[in-house]
UniProtKB/TrEMBL annotation:
Residues 382-432 are annotated as: Disordered. Residues 158-353 form the HD-GYP domain. This is Two-component system response regulator. Residues 10-124 form the Response regulatory domain. It comes from the Bacteria. The modification 4-aspartylphosphate is found at residue 59. GO terms for biological process: phosphorelay signal transduction system. Residues 405-414 have a biased composition (Gly residues). InterPro entries: CheY-like_superfamily, Cyclic_di-GMP/3'3'-cGAMP_PDE, HD/PDEase_dom, HD_domain, HD_GYP_dom, HDIG_dom, Sig_transdc_resp-reg_receiver. Residues 180-302 form the HD domain. It comes from Melittangium boletus DSM 14713. The lineage of its organism: Bacteria, Pseudomonadati, Myxococcota, Myxococcia, Myxococcales.
């Protein structure tokens, strides 16, 4: 099979002198180039737009639009087209001006054929290298975009995995304390709402949310006899309970993405007036996330039912938090909390409850679907057993059972079972 010869590059020759234009085009055609000619700059620009033109050889001085105008237009419209300028004036200033504006070479008229061929070969080689560089750059940019997208997705997946792990851990802790079920998730919701009202957003808001979620993580180290005691704690038991902020801090302080949440965990029992624990911090010494959490935690503790008391109303809780501004709580945080309003706070709690019910209902529906599928499988197994098998090797029953004979009348083992299965369950089962 013969190889297909390469298509010769298209060269556009522009000169107002017919003799120069014709001589150059004839010589280049003999060298194997595909030549197109134009008598002026505007005509040349039109021809360059009709078909890809790797190279233009243009005279510098022409009536009307000159070669410099054509050079600028070609660089603007067709930047991949190389331009060699010809001129009868051998001044260095004109050559520098052409090269500065983007020409790849500059020759005197009439050019020697060898000089012209070398200039053409240099220009086309330079163009090939430039096109290859651009292709490589685009390929590299596309690969960088793809890798960046993959990395961004991977980081998002990792963050989601981290968050799911934290939620599972906190859910286990809440399950241990039966009386505070879902407490941590509600407190995160309230804390985030207050923080957003204070203008906190982005990564800082996420970190405060994680701190609120993990605030009681240290209770893992508190004995069940103390943590789950239904009555009042003794002084010794109370000292044991007060260790949980420091225990939680020690658990997560060395995890890089939990460095800030660890400070919130350590400070979440501090008070604005310095009467909190474990370090008796005061005012601005307390992390802003811990100051916000203190208000959110108090709201949830007051409005939720406990075995030993009934939860109070949101109005009462809001009034009590407002009364304690400046002593137990940061005034600025309380002001942002009050700006949210009672109805919005109630809606946060109702939304959390509705979301939990939706998840529970989805789980119940999934269990019911699995049970129905199991019953259908059993019915199909029973049906397979009622269908007569072959009477012999390689033979099939060809005579249908007579009406009234076993298997001929609708019944528990006949077509009635088929209809029952197709209808979605066993006959006589009211659930199906």
């Amino acid at each position: 099979m013969e190889a297909i010869p390469p298509v010769p590059p298209r060269i556009l020759i522009v000169d107002d002198d017919d003799s120069v234009r014709d001589v150059i085009s004839v010589l280049l055609r003999e060298e194997g180039y595909n030549c197109v000619v134009a008598s002026g700059a505007e005509m040349a620009l039109d021809l360059a737009g009709q078909e890809e033109t790797p190279l233009v050889i243009s005279d510098m001085k022409m009536p009307g639009k000159d070669g410099l105008w054509l050079l600028e237009q070609l660089r603007e419209r067709y930047p991949d087209t190389s331009v060699i300028m010809l001129t009868g004036y051998g001044d260095t200033e004109s050559a520098v001006d052409c090269l500065r504006r983007g020409a790849v070479d500059y020759l005197l008229k009439p050019p020697k054929l060898t000089d012209l061929i070398r200039a053409i070969e240099r220009a086309l080689a330079k163009r090939r290298i430039e096109l290859a560089r651009k292709r490589y750059q685009k390929k590299l940019e596309r690969k960088v975009r793809d890798r960046t997208t993959e990395l961004r997705n991977a980081l998002r997946d990792i963050a989601h995995t981290y968050q799911s792990t934290l939620l599972a851990l906190v859910s286990a802790l809440d399950a241990r304390e039966h009386e505070t079920s879902d407490h941590s998730l509600r407190v995160v919701r309230y804390t985030s709402a207050i923080a957003e009202r204070m203008g906190i957003k982005g990564p800082e808001l996420d970190e405060i949310g994680r701190g609120a979620l993990l605030h009681d993580i240290g209770k893992i180290g508190v004995p069940d006899a103390v943590l789950l005691k239904p009555g009042k704690l003794t002084p010794e038991e109370w000292l044991e309970m007060r260790k949980h902020p420091d225990i939680g801090f020690q658990m997560i302080q060395n995890i890089p993405f939990l460095a800030t949440p660890a400070q919130i965990v350590l400070s979440h029992q501090e008070r604005w007036d310095g009467q909190g624990y474990p370090r008796n911090l005061r005012g601005q010494e307390i992390h802003i996330g811990a100051r916000i959490f203190a208000v959110a935690d108090t709201l949830d503790a007051m409005t939720c039912d406990r075995p030993y008391r009934k939860g109070t109303t949101f109005a009462n809780a809001i009034a009590e938090i407002s009364r304690c501004a400046g002593t137990q709580f940061d005034r600025e945080v309380v002001r942002a909390f009050l700006d949210i309003g009672e109805q919005a706070l109630i809606k946060h709690k109702e939304d959390m409850h509705s979301r939990k019910l939706t998840l529970v209902q989805s789980e119940m529906q999934a269990h019911e679907a699995e049970a129905t599928l199991a019953r259908l499988s059993e019915d199909l197994d029973d049906l397979d057993q009622t269908i007569p098998g072959p009477t012999g090797p390689g033979s099939r029953a060809t005579t249908p059972p007579a009406p009234g004979s076993p298997g001929g009348a609708p019944g528990a083992n006949g077509p009635g079972v088929v209809l029952s299965v197709l209808a979605g369950g066993r006959q006589g089962n009211p659930r199906d």
